[in-house]
Amino acid sequence: MRWISTIVCLLLLAALLTPAAPGSARDPGAATGGDAVRDMLDQVLAIQTDPRLQDRRHRDERRRAIKAVIARNFHFDGMARQALGKYGDGLDASQRASFLALFQDLFQDSYTKLVLDFLKRERIIYDSEEAAPNRSQIKTRIVRMSEEIPVEYSLAPVEGKWLVQDVKIDGISITENYRRSFARVIQRDSFRVLLDKMRLQRQAMEK
Questions:
Q1: What spatial distance separates the first Cα and last Cα of the chain, rounded to whole Å?
Q2: Digit-coded pLDDT (tens) for 164-202
Q3: Is CB count within 10 Å lower at the N or C end of the chain?
Q4: Is residue 172 a part of any domain in this protein?
């Protein structure tokens, strides 16, 4: 699916889903959004460069470890709601649950596969952080060979921890790309067709 491939490519460059209701987020304490991003990327790169895990026999072990890092650091509920936009308003609980499960699986599996295949020793430069009580914007650059790619992370405090809810790569938002892609399928066909396409994509990635 073209829209899945587009987002997957964005996730690779990033090196590496419902926003909390007003008043429901707790202060994450001393840790900042910048600390959360740095820790996340350090963990991913540490897994990829661990000399004990370089043999192909350890690929599944690395995959599970990277997927766990993603699960701990992204706000999938919030990203999923943003990605559906207005089309999520009329869904029932079962439809929302099905979409969230598929969205999370595809996001994690796509990113994990590309990290395993391509991400190794890129250098990450941390430029700045714009912090507020309920959000944090972290600007970084990824240095790959002679290329520098600007990457901006948007985080929100969720249950005492900063979680990533969007990533902009060279000014392009991952959640905005999801929203446009999902909207095209829903407008042209239906929400049910979107779920069917996502299920097929998940099946293809499991092979």
A1: 16
A2: 999 888 888 888 988 999 999 999 999 999 999 999 988
A3: C
A4: yes
Closest CA to 139 of 14, 40, 51: 14
Contacts of 103 (CB under 8 A, 6+ apart): 17, 76, 79, 80, 83, 198
Return the residue matching tokens 């419902």: 18
Q: Which two tokens stand for residue 192?
A: 């049910």
Judge whether 65 lies within some domain.
yes
**23 falls within a domain:** no
Q: What are phi and psi of 27, to 5 degrees?
A: -60, 125
Judge whether 99 and 81 are in contact, CB under 8 Å. Answer: no
Task: Give pTM, 2 decimals.
Answer: 0.77
Q: Residue 44 corresponds to which amino acid?
A: V
- Helix pair 93-118, 59-73: axis angle to 10 deg: 130
Q: How many domains does the chain have?
A: 1
CATH classification at residue 160: 3.10.450.710
Cβ neighbours of residue 153 closer than 8 Å, sequence gap 6 or more = 33, 37, 137, 138, 140, 164, 166, 167
Name the residue among 120, 116, 119, 140 with its Cα closest to residue 130: 140
In sign, the C-alpha dihedral spanning 170, 154, 9, 18 is negative
Instruction: Find the angle CA(76)-CA(43)-CA(69) to the nearest 5 degrees.
Output: 25
